[in-house]
Amino acid sequence: MLTRNLKEKGIESLLFASGAVAVIALILLCIFLFKEGVLLFKDYSIINFLTDTRWLPTAKEPQFGLLPLLLGSFVVTVGAILFSVPLGLAAAIYISEIADPRFANIMKPVAEILAGIPSVVYGFFGLVVLVPIVQKTLQLPTGQTALTGSIILGIMALPTIISISEDAISSVPRSIKEGSLALGSTQWQTIYKVTFPAALSGISAAVMLGIGRAIGETMTVMMVSGNSAIIPGFPSGLFTSVRTMTATIALEMGEVPQGSDHFHALFAIGSVLFITTFIINIIANYIKRRYRFNL
């Protein structure tokens, strides 16, 4: 009995230490990120950083305008969600409610395999295959546009949306579906008016996590979106080259002098990106807890 209690205490201590290490690492990361980012505002106005429309870090009078990078990330992310959410939800409904169980058991693992493909592979596919198609089809000067980045990011977000949405739909109690069918509803009426609303919280969490995946992606958008730091419109901005916050950090951090305003500006961008993704994850976790409670 004593040995068993010691083992349980040891396991509890190990789990606590693992959780504490993760929390401490996150806190240290936040301190390092914000400490370096805030140093920019000793010589540069935070208002100008947030509202300036030009990103010219190497000019004679440097301008560190976040706005074109923020809007570039926004346009690409919105385009990705508009592409991936309808397709992902349709696939999740088909796998959960319509497909033959043997076929569904193959489709879901295959869809989830997409999540394990490195982002550089997606970027290479987009650069070699999708970019020429977009350029020729739309008669654009270049195929490296926000639209191309949106399509690739949408494909990358699909596994998350399909997997979590399918789990949410499958978790709806069978008795609710059978009750709807017993009252004379068709299969599609049951899916649309009963199953989908009951799983809406879980589906919303899937969409939020898909947004988090899209907005935090670096390599893919750097390869296919053109990297022009200009303010895009929407939807016309989908057909122009844009630069995202993540791509800016990846492109410029390796060549920037350490301790310069440019160096601190990149950390400030990283701080904004961290806060954005952190808020998205909090909202997604809140929705997931609500979904579990409701079911």
Instruction: Return the CATH topology of the largest domain.
Output: MetI-like fold
Overall strand count: 2
The percent of residues in helical segments reads over 70%
Relative strand content:
under 5%
Radius of gyration: 23 Å
Mean pLDDT: 84
> Number of domains in the coordinates?
2
What would you call the quaternary organization? single chain
Strand order of the largest sheet: 1-2
Q: What is the CATH domain class of the largest domain?
A: Mainly Alpha
Please work out how many helical segments DSSP would assign. Answer: 12
Which runs of at least 5 residues are low in confidence (pLDDT < 50)?
none
CATH architectural grouping of the largest domain: Orthogonal Bundle
Largest sheet: 2 strands, antiparallel
Report how far apart the termini are: 38 Å
Output the CATH homologous superfamily of the largest domain: MetI-like
Decide which structural class fits the backbone: mainly alpha
Form type? globular
H/E series: HHEEHHHHHHHHHH
List the helices and strands and how they pair.
Elements lengths: L1 H37 L7 H6 L3 E2 L6 E2 L2 H32 L2 H13 L5 H20 L7 H25 L3 H9 L4 H12 L1 H16 L3 H6 L20 H8 L8 H34 L1
Function: Part of the binding-protein-dependent transport system for phosphate; probably responsible for the translocation of the substrate across the membrane.
Membrane topology: Multi-pass membrane protein
Keywords: Cell membrane, Membrane, Phosphate transport, Transmembrane, Transmembrane helix, Transport
